[in-house]
Specification:
Among the domains are: 10-62, no CATH class; 114-221, 2-Layer Sandwich (Muramoyl-pentapeptide Carboxypeptidase, domain 2), CATH 3.30.1380.10. The chain is 34% helix and 13% strand. It contains 6 helices and 8 strands, in the order E-E-H-E-E-H-H-E-H-H-E-H-E-E.
Length: 238
C-alpha cells in the first residue's frame, strides 16, 4: 500500500483513549489540533477531579467539626418545664393539712411533713425511740398518717360515709374532727404490718399502745414507758 493521501480521512485508533478518532489532512483530529493535545486535556481533567475531591473532603471536615463542637440539647427525658433534670428543684412541701403525698415513704424522723412535726412531743419522741430499736430487728416504720387538720379529718369522714353508705358505719373507722385524736396530734398510724406487729408486742416499753381492735395500725400514748396498755376499744365509736 502506498502513502495515505493528505486529503483522505480515515478512522484511526487513538493511542490515548482507544477510541476511533476521525483524522483529516495533516493527520490531526478534526477540531482538536495536534494529537498530543488530547492527552494534555485528559491530564487537566484528572487534575480538576482531584482538586474537586480534596475540596469536598475539606468541606465535610469543617461541617463535622462544627457539629461535634456545637451545644447539644439534652434528651427529652432529662428536660422539665424549668430546664434539664440536673437543675430540678426539690418538690414543694405539702399543704399544711397533715396529708402525706401519695407514694411517699415517711418515717418518724421526716419532720418536714406536718403530719410528723405536729405530733405531740411525747408521742413523737416515743415513736422515734421505738423506730430506732425496731431497726435492730430489721423492722422499718412508715408513718401513714399522723397529725391532721380539721378539714383533712372531715374529708376522710366524708369519704368513709361514701364508702360505707352511712355515717354510723363510717364512724367506726373515722372519727369526727371534734373527737379525733389525730387532729389533737395524739395519734399516729404506722405501717407496714410487720411494724404494727412489732409495736403491738413491744410498744408498751415506750408508752405506745394499740387503741382500737379494728385498727391494728393506730397507736397512742396510753401508758407510762414500761407500763401495761389498757384493754382495746372495739372501734372509734366507743
Amino acid at each position: 500500500m502506498g502513502p495515505i493521501p493528505c486529503d483522505e480521512t480515515q478512522e484511526r485508533y487513538s493511542e490515548n483513549t482507544g477510541i476511533g478518532v476521525p483524522r483529516g489532512a495533516g493527520g490531526y483530529a478534526r477540531g482538536n489540533g495536534p494529537a498530543g493535545s488530547g492527552a494534555e486535556r485528559g491530564k487537566r481533567w484528572n487534575g480538576y477531579w482531584l482538586l474537586g475531591g480534596i475540596s469536598a473532603l475539606l468541606v465535610l471536615a469543617v461541617v463535622g467539626y462544627e457539629v461535634s463542637h456545637s451545644p447539644r440539647t439534652p434528651p427529652r427525658s432529662q428536660l422539665t418545664a424549668n430546664g434539664p433534670a440536673s437543675q430540678r428543684t426539690a418538690p414543694a412541701l405539702q399543704a399544711d393539712d397533715g396529708e402525706i403525698p401519695s407514694g411517699r415513704d415517711v418515717t418518724p424522723f421526716d419532720t418536714q411533713y406536718s403530719a410528723v412535726s405536729r405530733l405531740a412531743p411525747d408521742l413523737l419522741k416515743a415513736l422515734q425511740q421505738a423506730d430506732n430499736d425496731a431497726k435492730g430487728a430489721g423492722i422499718t416504720f412508715r408513718v401513714t398518717s399522723g397529725w391532721r387538720s380539721k378539714a383533712h379529718q372531715q374529708r376522710l369522714l366524708d369519704d368513709a360515709v361514701h364508702e360505707y353508705g352511712s355515717l354510723r358505719t363510717a364512724r367506726q373507722y373515722v372519727n369526727t374532727p371534734e373527737k379525733s385524736t389525730h387532729v389533737q396530734g395524739k395519734a399516729v398510724d404506722i405501717g407496714p404490718t410487720d411494724a404494727d406487729d412489732w409495736l403491738i408486742q413491744h410498744g408498751s416499753r415506750y408508752g405506745l399502745c394499740q387503741v382500737y381492735a379494728n385498727e391494728m395500725w393506730h397507736f397512742e400514748i396510753r401508758t407510762a414507758p414500761g407500763g401495761t396498755c389498757p384493754a382495746l376499744l372495739n372501734n372509734a365509736t366507743d
